[in-house]
Amino acid sequence: MQLHISPSMRSITISSSNSNGGFIDLMKIKVAARHISYRTLFHTILILAFLLPFVFILTALVTLEGVNNCSSFDCLGRRLGPRLLGRVDDSGRLVKDFHKILNQVNTEEIPNGLKLPESFSQLVAEMKSNQYDAKTFALTLRAMMEKFEREIRESKFAELMNKHFTASSIPKGIHCLSLRLTDEYSSNAHARRQLPAPELLPLLSDNSYHHFILSTDNILAASVVVTSTVASSLRPEKIVFHVITDKKTYAGMHSWFALNSVSPAIIEVKGVHQFEWLTRENVPVLEAVESHNSIRNYYHGNHVAGANLSDTTPRMFASKLQARSPKYISLLNHLRIYLPELFPNLDKVVFLDDDVVIQRDLSPLWDIDLKGKVNGAVETCRGEDEWVMSKRFKNYFNFSHPLIANNLDSEECAWAYGMNVFDLHAWRKTSIRETYHSWLRENLKSNLTMWKLGTLPPALIAFKGHVHAIDPEWHMLGLGYQNKTDIESVKRAAVIHYNGQSKPWLPIGFEHLRPFWTKYVNYSSDFVRNCHIMET
Ligand SMILES: *[C@@H]1O[C@H](CO)[C@@H](O)[C@H](O)[C@H]1NC(C)=O
Ligand SMILES: *[C@@H]1O[C@H](CO)[C@@H](O)[C@H](O)[C@H]1NC(C)=O
Ligand SMILES: *[C@@H]1O[C@H](CO)[C@@H](O)[C@H](O)[C@H]1NC(C)=O
Ligand SMILES: *[C@@H]1O[C@H](CO)[C@@H](O)[C@H](O)[C@H]1NC(C)=O
Ligand SMILES: *[C@@H]1O[C@H](CO)[C@@H](O)[C@H](O)[C@H]1NC(C)=O
Asked: How confident is the model over 24-70, as pLDDT tens digits?
């Protein structure tokens, strides 16, 4: 590459040897004599030394900002040239030439062994010293830009995955719903109305009613659980719902149920901060769990670092992230072990997870004879579905750990959370909570090597001997696990449970299983509509 300034300084030519040994003019700038000025020269030098880095930076910006349909190469001359070269005479020609040569290489394969300069200043330096022919130069330029774009794309992937993760735990629409309903709580007196009405308060501890307890920070999911329970009930006037949520969701959750009556059923919404019993003193292990350093890192750490992007699909990635969801250490999730203390006046309750849909009247659950046991649950080691229904203790615990091996039977059948009948009266006579606490502590001491995650494993130990198996038709599992779920069984089941990562409110939910859930989403609610929930 040569920069040639004519003796009369009437023209400046940037030329380069071509493969035939001759010179081709890469750029030619004619300068009218009268106008010779250092400024003109300056512009020319500018082109050489600065245009390319500029192109680079601007291209990067274009890529990042997503100005579409402008492959960076095409855009070069069109978008960037005129702006920079506008004041140089004959700039039209210059830009055209430049554009032409870039176009030439645009369609060519980049040679495999092409050595790329590390940076743009290096390219400029090499450009001055080496005798680059125009084509090599342009190819190098292009290869560098493509490499740069690739890097941007990879960082985008990481960013997308992060977004995906965020979206997985709280999709935008559900977050929006929570924000808007919280707003409504402060601006609309009706949204703040007492729940239930004062004259109904005594029913909250009346054991002749059917008490359901639900603990969640997902308002939409809560609305589906409550709506489906009430809609499927033969005696909805007997239903009392106790919805427990965290402090940040309290106002929004309250607004929703204040504005969407579940009458004739009764509902109360409580924040964890409203339970006097829930103190650090009474819940010592949870404090320890949350502050344990390695746990914090495991659940809240950087999930993208270390992920192999080339062999990861969004669904697999989401599944990995799901397993590390902070929900496994959230108080809302562990709350179920404190039901006897949180509802001291109740004798028998049904505890529901937020990822279930109720399709049949559940009042017969209160008539099941638990035979003195505390927990009526479906077992998960027998059943037609060989994958979902094959869970024994060995699936949840590390039997290489001596404490586990000495205390548990690896073949013992596991049971499921999601829909449980709890006899709180019987529960209060046991030491289930203490057992739960002591095993949580042991697992912490062993650096979480006894079991990995979840509230189920310590409960499997704590409830040992206190479980009464109920008919599997009551509670069908696995709708968030796999695509093979049998639709006929889904239709028959009293309660369907989207356990697994493919929750029906997530983009990764299984499409053919979603309608059983969306059926109970109130799409005529302005809040649901305005937050564009589950629109496709
Ligand atoms: C990522 O996965 C691909 C395909 O399985 C493999 O070839 C590559 O070596 C992996 N990279 C890392 C850094 O593990
Ligand atoms: C737990 O991990 C810490 C640090 O990683 C280590 O010092 C300690 O020995 C481990 N404890 C057990 C019981 O493995
Ligand atoms: C299982 O327990 C053994 C013994 O404590 C331990 O060496 C091993 O790392 C544990 N496995 C897992 C997956 O935590
Ligand atoms: C799930 O299975 C159904 C029917 O077998 C099929 O149509 C659908 O494409 C599958 N979806 C996924 C995500 O695998
Ligand atoms: C759905 O929302 C509309 C509008 O807010 C309300 O009038 C209606 O009662 C709701 N339906 C149910 C089943 O909650």
From this structure: 444 444 444 344 444 444 444 444 433 443 344 333 333 333 333 34
Residue 431 confidence (pLDDT): 95
- Tokens 């190819």 belong to 139
| Model confidence at 162: pLDDT above 90 | no
The whole-number pLDDT of residue 534 equals 73
Spatial distance between the Cα atoms of 478 and 484, rounded to a whole number of angstroms: 9
pLDDT in tens, 348-389: 999 999 999 999 999 999 999 999 999 999 999 987 776 677
Structural domain contains residue 447: yes
* Pair (118, 244) in one structural domain: no
Select from 511, 513, 514 the residue to mutate for testing ligand 4; criterion: most ligand atoms less than 8 Å from CB. 511
Q: For 311, which DSSP code?
A: G
| Max Cα–Cα distance, the chain, nearest Å | 109
Task: Take residue 108 and report the two structure tokens written for it.
Answer: 């060519």
The DSSP letter of residue 109 is P
Cβ 363 under 6 angstroms from ligand 5: no
228 and 150 housed in the same domain = no
Query: Between β-strands 356-358 and 495-497, what pairing exists: parallel, antiparallel or unpaired?
Result: antiparallel
Q: Distance between terminal CA atoms of the chain? A: 55
Contact 102, 76 (CB under 8 A): yes
Alpha carbon nearest to ligand 5 atom 9, residue: 260
Question: What is the distance between the alpha carbons of residues 297 and 75, in angstroms, rounded to a whole number?
Answer: 44
Look at the chain and report how many structural domains it folds into.
3
